[in-house]
């Protein structure tokens, strides 16, 4: 098969690395890719958002299967455009991707399908939103309704933080159209996990779960980011709880989407809070997580390509996946200034020495080549992923590799691992 991966981040590097090992893949391309992905695939200079150019490339190069990594091209209808040209693609249609592009839509689906979630209100007026927050009290959660690159959610511990978040979306217009409407939700207390399942429109196949670390600073302090690290399997998520999540969250969502005429195919990512009484949905995403993909895919023993094809073809019932028993841990290295104004163009050295351990893989999230030099070209730049018999062993491997990377302008959290140990 001739396969194209769309995207340029750490998630796409993990996908390309995983698919490149499949005996079904004869030729692998990535649009646009990055310096690390170039070691796995032929990178082509087409932006992930350039639907017309991607469709034209697939036609010209006789691409058999497209794997869409980021959410924005899915929301923009890339899968729809490829289907119109007879090109098979992994990912939901624009209509189904609304599960991620509109948090209000996702909340309405939860009501329709009986999926446990936090109570919420919707607002377009800042004064009304602030009045509600003042009456409700803190802690409270403020969310931009649309896609905000992982930066549209504020968990406000006090009222002033909530007011600032409301102003950022509705007054300052920091998120553009994505912040035309905001949701204000009850704060949920518990352990947060990311649960992934493949879906083929009618059936769903659970994948491994992960836990990510969204806060910038150690001890889960500082602003939310796209993710500073991840671990898998998710601590405390056994077979019984996984079954409960499938029965109460994933399968009802797939069924409701089908009933609404928006059959969901692709990977459904449920961000969940494990509260004292039941798992409750925080949000749906319609793609692999980043950095969760960097811990899920290294744990996968099975060839991923047949499973992704089965999701597209509607035959997931024929698929069984096997997983490694080892723990996986990913530490994200980011550029100074992230998440607001990351420093670009600084040189990264020492990756060859850092990557010698066969139980370790360094995924590139934001890099580019300048001759022989490797340069930072984004906010989150590298994802150092290690396997181990347990999280302590995986952590020791990952941080030993990080200590060999010569990049003074980069930083990472030093506490990625199970919370409380």
Query: Please, what is the average pLDDT?
Result: 96
User: Separation of termini?
Assistant: 44 Å
How many DSSP E strands?
24
CATH class of the largest domain: Alpha Beta
- Helix share of residues? 25-40%
The CATH architecture of the largest domain would be: 2-Layer Sandwich
Q: Can you summarize this structure?
A:
Helices cover 30% and strands 28% of the residues. By secondary structure, the chain is of the alpha+beta class. Helix 1 packs parallel to helix 10.
Notes on the protein architecture:
The chain has helices at residues 10-20, 51-61, 71-75, 78-84, 98-101, 103-113, 126-136, 159-170, 239-259, 293-299, 304-313, 351-354, 391-402; strands at residues 2-7, 27-32, 42-43, 65-68, 88-90, 120-123, 140-144, 153-156, 182-186, 191-200, 204-206, 211-212, 215-217, 221-224, 229-232, 265-274, 279-285, 327-335, 347-348, 360-364, 367-370, 373-376, 380-388, 410-411. Helix 1 (10-20) packs parallel to helix 10 (293-299), helix 6 packs across helix 9 (239-259) and helix 7 (126-136) runs antiparallel to helix 8. It has 421 residues and is of the alpha+beta class. The mean pLDDT is 96. The chain is 30% helix and 28% strand. It folds into four domains: 2-93, Rossmann fold; 125-180, ATP-grasp fold, A domain (Dna Ligase, domain 1); 191-318, ATP-grasp fold, B domain (D-amino Acid Aminotransferase, Chain A, domain 1, 2-Layer Sandwich); 327-411, Glycinamide Ribonucleotide Synthetase, Chain A, domain 4.
